[in-house]
Amino acid sequence: MRRQMIRLIGITFLVRNVEGFVSKSVCLRAGMRSRSSSNLRATLDEELSQWATDSGFGTIVSSKPMGSSGWASFRRVEVSDPNAPDFFVKSSSRSSAEMFEGEALGLQAMFECSKGEDGLRIPQVFKYGDLTNGGGSFLVMEYLSLAGRSDDGALGRAVARMHLAEPTEAAGNPRGVFGFPVDNTIGGTPQPNDWTTGGGTEDWVAFFRDKRIGHQLKLAGDSYCSKLWDDKIAPRLGALFEGIDVRPSLLHGDLWSGNIGSADGKPTIYDPATYWGHHEAEWGMSWCASFGRGFWDGYRSVIPEDEGFQDRKPLYDAYHQLNHYNLFGGGYIGSARGDLETLRRNLDAIGA
């Protein structure tokens, strides 16, 4: 698989290319026309104008198109209030629940958990919802001028601080449990996020067993992986977590190199698949993230490595390898099998 980044005036979109086939759900083409009709654009202009006035930002002085994808259109909006930021607006002919709710709630949680001088630079969400005429939906967030990845040590420390943020009502998790307020997607794959009843280690084991690996295995339909998981791994999974206290951390959920950059001199991460989970689960995409020593030194200076991390890591890798197989097919199923076989050996080695 090859992943490419297309940068359009500071916002990054992802293109995933597999053996010459570009997934229609994410492919972006310069100059491509949105499916949104002229009526939708006119209605959106009216909604944005009313929103700006009602929010005390004055009037809209500029609304510049920034391209489109197969599912949404993008624009940069400037308002008359000199103290207001520029805004990045996404719009779609589909409903907000389908298109923007999961992204908006994920960004809001990441913003709340990244406050402070040394936190991640996350764009603030100002509004999302359906157009009043029912003809589509939109998302308004702070515009960031994105640049490339810079200080990996600062990135590591900032991600660790997000992981250590307390689950709160403002961050969308008032009960301090695992899951997320809504289901979202990992790539184009549905990601179920039903809340657990508790926020301890056993709850996490059950969540990841059923809502992550179990879910992906059902989609994959690979009999070897499913049998290995059901017979040799899932019944013993809790043994990998003995002696550690797993508590909910806010996760980006899809942290690979294409979702990392900088803005205003600070590290930023974007295009999340956010949920509350074990902080180690964040590293399931590290095989595609180019995390070097500087990053890990920064992260581990805040969150030291727990005993048994290396034994558990294939579990978190397997989730993303299975997801890649479900998205793209090909050799990812072999990598997922390898991760599950390693898990079985690790469980055997500890006498589980």
Folded structure, characterized:
The chain is α+β, with helices and mostly antiparallel strands and 352 residues long. The strands form 5 sheets. It has a 5-stranded antiparallel beta sheet with strand order 4-5-6-8-7, with helices on both faces. It has a 3-stranded antiparallel beta sheet with strand order 1-2-3, with no helix packed on it. The chain has a two-stranded antiparallel ribbon with strand order 9-10. The longest helix has 20 residues.
Strand order of the largest sheet: 4-5-6-8-7
From the alpha carbons, calculate the radius of gyration and give it in angstroms. Answer: 21 Å
The geometry reads as globular
The helix-strand sequence is EEEHEEEHHEEHEEHHEEEEHHH
Termini Cα gap: 36 Å
Mind summarizing the main beta sheet?
Answer: 5 strands, antiparallel
Average pLDDT figure: 89
Report the count of strand segments.
14
Structural class estimated from helices and strands: alpha+beta
- Beta percentage is 15-25%
Number of H/I helices: 9
Helical amount among residues, as a percent range?
Answer: 25-40%
| Low-pLDDT residue intervals, each spanning 5 or more residues | 1-36
